[in-house]
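Trying the structure run again after the queue cleared.
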Amino acid sequence: MLKTFKIGGVHPPENKISADKKIETLTIPKSVFIPVAQHIGAPATAVVNKGDLVKVGQIIAKSSGFVSTNIHSSVSGKVKKIDTSTDSSGYPKHGIFIDVEGDEWLEEIDRSETLKNTFELNGVEIVQKIQEAGIVGLGGATFPTHVKLVPPKGMKADVLLINGVECEPYLTSDHRLMLEKADEILVGTQLLMKAMNVEKAVIGIENNKPDAIKFLTDKAKNYKGITVIALQVKYPQGGEKQLIKAVTGKEVPSGGLPIAVGAVVSNVGTAFAVYEAIQKNKPLIERVVTVTGKSIAKPSNFKVRIGTSTSELIEAAGGLPEDTGKIISGGPMMGRAIASLDVPVTKGTSGILIMQNNEAKRGEYMDCIRCSRCVSVCPMGLEPYLLMTFGQKKIFDRAENDRIMDCIECGSCSYTCPSNRPLLDYIRFGKAKVGTIIRTRKK
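Done. Tokens:
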């Protein structure tokens, strides 16, 4: 029997219509906007000025703390200005505008496709290079990877879990990466193992990707300590806590981190980025992004420079369909609708989904009928109908007591609600307010 997590979960239509599309390299844009905050934690601080010439891979913003990370130029050219622009959150964010001139890379970056599978760095040196290269979690959370690799005092990792689940409908960037860059992912996994000082790593992949499971299983035989596990298809299998429960049987305590049960989780894209950083001296300046939708002319998986505008991806995939109802950064369950095509690709951009009018419309919002479906599908064992009420009525003390901060924002509750109630919207609102209250209290 295939492994999975035990509580809740749903199975929305997969719609992996771009799964057979090989990764294409998108044309270099004429200009980019690179935000200085593309990660959880403190924004980086710009170290370039208007008029400066920069090369591909050059640091343009330095981390401003331990939970922060460097930002590098993804293009070569001239810094046009340092200003604000709207990102996928809908809020103005500070960043660096660069007008592209040619494609000149730093000399130390190895741009060859030759696999480098030997390394001599020790664990501390690996963590340092990962930090310098600006590597973050590429599954969407964008938590700085070097922070994960340095556990709190008194805690130790026993196992590394590599997340190849990609349970979000429509998205296929991780799937393609596993098929096209398997050895690089496995070398990256070994580097992470050495950094963590563990001897065991498990790559979890949902069973709807049999080609990736077989391919990586065969490849992993040549890499000591790495195994591949097929998982039952169930959303949100790719959540950190759900993946840990499925693979190890251990449950991360409320408010705790994966390291509390001896686990560290990294996305397959992150493992690949670690390989490039350590073995090729290449910082995180590009990533694979799925551009998809039922009406789009050319569903694709593109390798894209950070800072490229969403409009350029959509144009490369055949343009915006006439029946477009909504454009989402990410997938339909956890992604967010964007209001402008100028929104840039960032380190956390896994996909751009073009939803049809009939898909994008929400049903009529009705009263709760107390059916408890939202409770039965919540993978964290919460009561979403109640947390929504607390968010609506601004009863934040009750929301905190009822573990609103444990919500992983998977959207299973909203997806299954027969009354079309905006459960996740109000829970996100309440969670943000409670988070602010907690941080203020600690200060």
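DSSP finds 14 helices and 17 strands in the chain. Worth checking whether this holds up in the mutant runs.
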